[in-house]
Amino acid sequence: MIATLPGPTYEEMLHPHRIDPAMRARGRTDGRAGLFDIAWRDAEGRPYVDVLPRELTGVDAPIAVLYGRDMPTGSHKVGAAYSVLAEAVLAEGLEPGKHTCIWPSTGNYGIGGAWVARQLGFGSIVALPETMSAERFALLRRYGSDIATTPGSESSARQVFDRCQALVASDPARMRVLNQFESFGNYRFHYYVTGNTIAEIAAELSQRGIGRGRVAAFASAMGSGGTIAAGDRLKQLWSDALVVGVEPIQCPTLSRGGFGDHQIQGIGDKHVTWIHHVHTMDAMVAVDDRECLLGLQLLTEEAGWKVMTQRYGVPEDAICRIATYVGISGVCNILAAIKTARYFGLSGDGLIVTVCTDTIDRYRSTMEQLTDENGAMDEVEAAVRLESIFHRQKTDWVLEATHALRRRWHDLKYYTWVEQLGKSEAELAALADPEFWLAEQAKVADVDRGILALR
To answer: Looking at the DSSP assignment, which residues form a beta bridge with residue 65?
Structure first.
């Protein structure tokens, strides 16, 4: 058994300002972030949140964005990776030097896993599709991880799972798969840390005259099914809060039982994840991957800045902030939040919350390819994009949940998890019981006690 686990508890990730500064400092190297910096807040308790200007969104309801830019590795996926590994250390006795962590991913979870594994002394292999951005691969190499590429695109999760199983078969004594799609450490990080952070931020924003101290809707794309778990906590606090799932039109698995390839790196993997609590989801929204790419370019290039500030009155300081914390999936979530506001008629005091997972720095090469294909974005094109993608975001591709739909989403898990990955039908049936999820949520306290004991 590993002698120590020098990382934070769930409670410390929720309230990092309560951590002993000396302990936090010991975890840092040459001023760089350490494990105790995994949080939605800085050391002084200030949240990583921004409220989008109405001049950009075109809707009255305020849209608050939590961003992962300032977490270690520049993405909130590092929190899920740490939580999954910490729980595996406690439950399975994983040891550095003895076990190698395999991280099935489309990029950000793998990057977070490579960084966390290095912090804790584990070997690391990241399995991900070969078509992910060049910047993702560069970060994995920077963190010293081995890389196992698989055929296909963002939505080709099956190939990633197959590669992980082959790696385990090659050395079963050493290899351990830390699967974000089924590991409840991922669920618990977002249920407890992200969910409670959002609730606290809602109260803080109300003191600034934004919203009424409660969340009207939470919109989150499903990649691993982790981030949307924050909605479970929000619905416990406000039963009428809307939890809105998001996926690409090009891969509408929950919307239409569909499939396909798409370009929103980080979401939409042609299956329903094991840890996705579909029974608490109120609606599904699908967003066009093309609009996400064009919207990201609008928000991060000079021609877009000029048009937004000079013609449409978007505050310059707001644009400067937004440009530093959006990536493709972040734009996807923002467009889904706008669509949610329009479809459900949310008013000026109905706070909508969403998440930006990573930043433009992971997509410069993707933006260059977009320019090569379409030519440079000029001011006319920038105005067209702002109007058509943001101000006139349509209310199509919205599917309100019913009992029958939730059951259908639940049953879709069968094809991946029972037929392919060895779960039993009894285990699948258990996921329909609300008591199952309450029991998983309650394990936060036990995990925290375990981490403190090893620390």
So the answer is: 50, 354
